[in-house]
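Example 636.
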Amino acid sequence: MNPKPTLYRWLLSAALVLVALHPAAAQSNKLTATLDGITFDSSYDNGSLAAISKLALNEYDATLYTDTGEKGTAEYWFRFTMSGVAGRTITIHLDHTHNPVPFLRVLDPGPGAWRRMTANEAPDNSTLTLSFDTNTTTVELAFFEPLGYTETLAAVTNLTAASPYAILTTLGQSFENRDLHLVTVNNPDYPDAGKHRVWVHTRVHAGEITSTHTMLGFLSQVLANSATGRRLREYVTFHIVPQVNVDGIHRGHTRWDAQGIDIESEWCNIRVPEAALLKGQVDFLMTQSNPISVALNLHSTRGNFTDSFFFKHLSPSVSVAFEGIQQNYIDAVDAATPLFDNLSAQTSQLNPCTFIESYFWNNWGESVMALTEEGHYYRRITDNAWTDGAHYREIGRAMARGLVTYYDLPPSSEPDPAPTLVTQPSSRILALGQPFSFSASSTSAPPVAYQWWVNGEPVTGATSATYTSLLTNVTQAGAYAVVATNSFGSVTSSLARLVLIDGSGTPIAFADDFEANSANRWTELGGFTSGGPDYSSDYSFDYDTYFSAFLGAPIPSAPNSAGATTHGLKLTVNDNDPVGALAAVSLFPKWQSYEATHALKFDMWINYPGGAGGSGASGTTENAFFGLNHSGEHVV
Ligand SMILES: [Zn+2]
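Predicted structure in complex with zinc ion:
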């Protein structure tokens, strides 16, 4: 399916004679240096730091790498680790003008998550002041939440390997022989003929990292197990090049490729294999019966813009009608997420040789809606918080969702599935006073709602995938499960048991103190031989209100009643049958099933008819039977 890259490789070998006249600078941004016991290291994939020198103990001067190419210099990317930082406060003088609040993560112990530095940690655009506790030995600093060549490939593989609709292939090799990948997303259940075709490529400029997060969001949306994901895959085929300037990314460049060339500007006279591979694939796809109709070229800008933006190309470089075609997609993305409001709308005239958009326009005109998208490193418009990778992944998902409106896609012909649980809750054995949590999760869509249950009763407020609480009461012991529901159905998890170890060390699998009405925890079965149903139940009866003629006093607190309260379960039978006849009631706690050896313990007060000692009574008196693992299906 892919065009053979051989021709381009052959042509390139001639072109390389020319570029050899101005070879790229050596990889002087890969350093390893130890100062005062702190090892600074940028000698890894995507690492970049040109120099580090000591000003005083724990105070250093860091020099950014200047990325020099035939179109000039570019300089903002940095990424390096520092080992041996435990217990220190370290000041680094480093130019981070284009991102006032760079990123940090703890590598050891870790790795932890990337986070923006605080205002104290990045007090101005040329200083970082970082304090570490005695447990933190190694940290990593970066201009923005980074993804190197290998990390990007791992993130893409993680998404594609989990989907039956994605194929990850190699287009060919870069100048430095790194693989250039292509992800194709297609649902083969639907014929190609009627499908739209979308092209996305990312990170032509090496340091423009927001574009990688945007791409990952876009890819996750088109692969999503959701109504929108199914709809997109039914009507659209996607081709995504997850990283173009793979050499520059690996080197830790800000902008140019390994030869100092701007891959973005290679559309008239292609001298680099990366652009040749893109062009070859695009040319092939444009020969299909359903050629590319949307092309998205993802970038980042170092400018401080209010919002992410698209470069809309204007007449006279394109037609006025094409301006409207571009605006339709921009409006569709605007409507797809509150994180984009087109507040930084930018325009440009197409240049015949720069941007893939020019290549599309020059060859296929209005039939390909091609746009450059730019993220930035500053605050977002909605809450004025600083942007991060998650922000741009959501922008990317919205760029995919916007295609539903742009193409006016029909609804998916596949019904949405009911949820399935990918993890189940597991049992816990805990003492009173300990925290506990149960969790289960569903990746299903439409959005899933959760409700946790204990012993057949819904737990108030427990409506997340994880239920966390404190074990404060014996009635919390028992069987837990969660019900996950979406608009197409629901599924109940397996039961997980919370066993409480009481003060004497006895494990309690289920208990009811009847302090509150717990009728919902029990199943009742009534039986009678005439005039029924003929029983009553009261699950929080205050038996102190019940005068015992036998005792000549109210019924005292049960022997095992915590706090000497006088609440209990009251059962009566044969209340309303004028004829002497059998009547009974059986109770079964819901959701209980036990294996191995268990004991049943309870306090019981039983009244009998007639006067004291039953004198003067007629007929039989009360019986009570009790045990474990009764089938719960009939009255004893
Ligand atoms: Zn760019």
